[in-house]
Amino acid sequence: MADSPTTTREAVLATARRMLAQRLVEGTSGNISGRLPDGLVCLTPSSVAYDTMTLDDLVVVDLDGAVVEGTRSPTTERDLHLATLRRYPELGSVIHTHAVHATMFALAREPIPAVIEEVVVYLGGDVPCCTYQPTGSAALGDEVAAHLAERSAALLANHGLVTCGRSPDQALHNAALAERTARIVWGARTMGATVHPLPAKVGTDMAGAYRYLRHNP
Ligand SMILES: [Zn+2]
């Protein structure tokens, strides 16, 4: 990313507050990372409320998780951020939330289907569900990273949602899109409606758009 470190830190903090305002998180749950221009990673801290969080509360770590800067402890879920950022150099941010409707699908261990074109373009297709691994474990980090190879969102079984993007802004956009899609699919099913898939051709035709957005600023 071309941003200065200060700008990336500010983007992480601003995006953390927007996650709260958009009701994608509650209390101190959820977390966000941003890759700094020097390759280090800025993380939200563990157990600090978003509405009082300041730039000084953010923690900078290297890609192996060693704290380089900051007095707080980084989020206990740092492994899912770092495993993803280590594996995919094109990505600059990861967001983890417990968004309600996405988490319904995570409890069912059922993918959020790509039933609107936006999901194909921005998330790469259906949002897959990872195999259950304990919260905060390195195994969960590996599981998440494996599922984000060709997707920008994945569900954590019995837990929540993780999304990624080139910037905190993109990762937040993708989290809101995954949550909105989970909500409308749940709502349509609650109506008793059959949720029809998009024609397969849509996925083929829009795969290039997804790859472009993931790899280009
Ligand atoms: Zn969590």
Characterization of the model:
By secondary structure, the chain is α+β, with helices and mostly antiparallel strands. The chain is 42% helix and 14% strand. The chain contains seven helices and eight strands, in the order αββββαβααβαββαα. It has helices at 5-21, 78-87, 100-108, 117-123, 138-147, 168-190, 200-215, and strands spanning 31-35, 41-43, 59-61, 67-69, 93-97, 129-130, 153-156, 160-165. An eight-stranded mixed sheet has the order 4-3-2-1-5-8-7-6, with helices on both faces. It is globular, with a radius of gyration of 16 Å. The protein starts with a helix and ends with a helix. The mean pLDDT is 94.
Summary keywords:
217 residues, alpha+beta, 8-stranded mixed β-sheet, 7 helices, 42% helix, globular, binds zinc ion
State the distance separating the first and last CA atoms.
Answer: 8 Å
- The topology string of helices and strands comes to HEEEEHEHHEHEEHH
Model regions low in confidence, pLDDT < 50 over at least 5 residues: none
Helix share bin: 40-55%
Oligomer, anyone?
Answer: single chain
Helix segment tally: 7
* Small molecules held by this entry: zinc ion
What's the total number of strands? 8
Mean pLDDT: 94
As a percent range, the share of strand residues is 5-15%
Cα-atom radius of gyration: 16 Å
Shape: globular
Main beta sheet: 8 strands, mixed
Strand order of the largest sheet: 4-3-2-1-5-8-7-6
